[in-house]
Structures are given as C-alpha cells and as structure tokens.
Amino acid sequence: MSEKTTLYIVRHGKTMFNTLGRAQGWSDTPLTPFGEEGIHELGAGLKAENIPFKAAFSSDSGRTIQTMDIIMEHLEYPNIPYLREKRIREWCFGSMDGGFDGELFDGILPRTDAYKGKDLDNLSFEDIARGIMEIDTAGWAEPWEKIKDRIYTGFEDIAHKLHTDGGGNALIVSHGMTIATFCHLVHPENPRVRGLDNGSVTIVSYDGEQFTVENAGLMKYREIGRKRLAK
Asked: Can 12 be counted among the known catalytic residues?
C-alpha cells in the first residue's frame, strides 16, 4: 500500500533584502546570521519530530539552496535525493526587482489601472500580476497565466513523482508569494494566504489527483527546534 503523499513547503530563511524591506523576486541575497539561526531552529525541530523525508526540492535561487543546506545539516540524511526546480521560484517583479517594498506595494502599484477602484486588502493575485506588468519597464515580469502555470505544475510534478514512487514526504524550500499562490490555486475559495514567515512550514497533501492545504505558515517546528537548541 502506498504511503500518504505530503509536501512540507518551507519559506526560505530571512535574507538581507528581507531585512532591508526590498522586493526580492528573481534577485537574490544570502541569509543574514539571524536568518541562518531561524533555519537552524527549523532543522532541529524537523529532526526532533522524526519526519521521514524521501526527497528534497528547492527553487534554483541561492537563498532557498542555502536554507536547504542548513536544514540538511540537522536531518542527517546523506542519501536523500535533492533536486532544484526553477518553476517554484519567487514571482519576478521586473524592473522593480530589488526595489523597496514600500515604494512598490504601497506607492507605485496602487496607482496602476489594475488596482483602480479595488480594496487593497482584497486584491487578487491576478490583479497584482497585472499591476506589476503595467509598471515593468524592462519586460521581465510574467503574466498571471504564466505565473500560475509554472507554480502549479512545479509543485504538481514533484507531488506526482513522489506519489507514483509509493508516496511519502517531500521537503521543499520555496518563497513567500510562490507558496501563497500555490495555496490559492489549490483552494481558490479560501482567503488569500498572507505574511508567511521566514522558516514557516506549509503542509499540503496529494491523493494522486487533488491537493489539500492542511496547514499554512506553521511556526511550531521552529519553536520546537529553538527549545531543543537551548538545552
């Protein structure tokens, strides 16, 4: 009998740009010492819970790779397969990539046609994508159809491969907006997931056809690890 297929999706550790309040899409900065500390807590917490991971995946961004390396130090799985999947990268903010969050999300985007007449708290991901494309002078930003396709198929292919191999648990490191987008695509009727913390864990199960978001943004593994490391 196959095991249940479950994805443990981690948001990478806190980076330099996260700390400085800059939009970090396809641009990249390393984890800060504080960010590394948080992921050490996460790794220790996952180890303490004895979750048996069969495979590991991250985006191809340096911050997710660094996060995975730290977690692996704690899990001590020398033979676990680890692959990088570029489809689960963060959104690209085009010419505003690396700009200040406040300038992008509170200044420029609210003045776009995509945002006009809409409550900022109830914007859809499609609205946000349209707004980013509207202000992107470099032509790098992705349309919503491309964003949702690459993110969903990236996670779907990971889950399907694991499921056909008998199921089990996959450890995945990705990005805040990417994880929130995936949760929305799985359950579009639910409110948009917001503010996923660095080092949080979102748990998604897969039955071979459909996904279910079981928990979003869990911090309990970091809390368990923090206590374990303090002993």
From this structure: yes
